[in-house]
Amino acid sequence: MNIMKKIYNESDIRNDYKKLTKLLIERGMTITTMESATSGQIASLITDTEGSSAVLKGAFVTYCNEAKIMQGVPAEILEKYTVYSKETAEAMAKACTKAYKANIGIGVTGTMGNADPANLEASVPGQVYFAIELNGEVMSYYLELQPQPTRLAYKLAVAKEIYDALMERL
User: Fold this and answer.
1) Are 109 and 128 within 8 A, CB to CB?
2) Strand 31-35 to strand 104-110: parallel, antiparallel, or no bridges (unpaired)?
3) Would the pTM count as exceeding 0.85?
4) Most buried in the list 70, 77, 102, 141, measured by CB within 10 Å?
5) Percentage of the chain surpassing pLDDT 70?
């Protein structure tokens, strides 16, 4: 597995999301997220731009499995593949897209700095799964991040990878 050895610059990432939000406003597209590992960071970056209420109708922070299930992620997916899987990220993207009837849905799950004590075998620090549903088509992604100095740095690194993947598809 290839660990991402990138330098992530917070200011650049914030500017990227400003561009994304303006592009979505321009195109009349909507976006939503269901975030676990990033705990709302993607939605927060989107809403940092004026006018973002036109594109972000809502988002879910589903930090525990019960929250994911409450918002439409099938329990069977979590049981079969674990919370740390592309299948879970895909189910998250689909569930939030459906809930908000959005053009774009992003699901993200993974392990940031520490392994999950409740799920030691499946959680590997730096391993992140995310999925993007765009107009009904879901694509999933996997990345391994090098250790980051803070939890915010992990969240911003994931946000950058999601931004890059989404922009390739837009």
Assistant:
1) yes
2) parallel
3) yes
4) 102
5) 91
Are the C-beta atoms of 145 and 105 separated by less than 8 Å? no
Average pLDDT (124-152) is 92
Please give the structure tokens belonging to residue 81: 């593949």
> In the block, which residue shows the tokens 């321009």?
26
Distance of CA 134 to the CA centre of its chain: 13
Cα 169 to Cα 42: distance, rounded to the nearest angstrom:
17
Q: ∠129-25-67 over CA atoms, to 5°?
A: 35
State the DSSP string of 3-56. EE-----HHHHHHHHHHHHHHHHHHT--EEEEESTTTTHHHHHHHTSTTGGGTB
pLDDT band at 120 (very low <50, low <70, confident <90, very high): low
Locate 93 and state its tokens: 């993207």
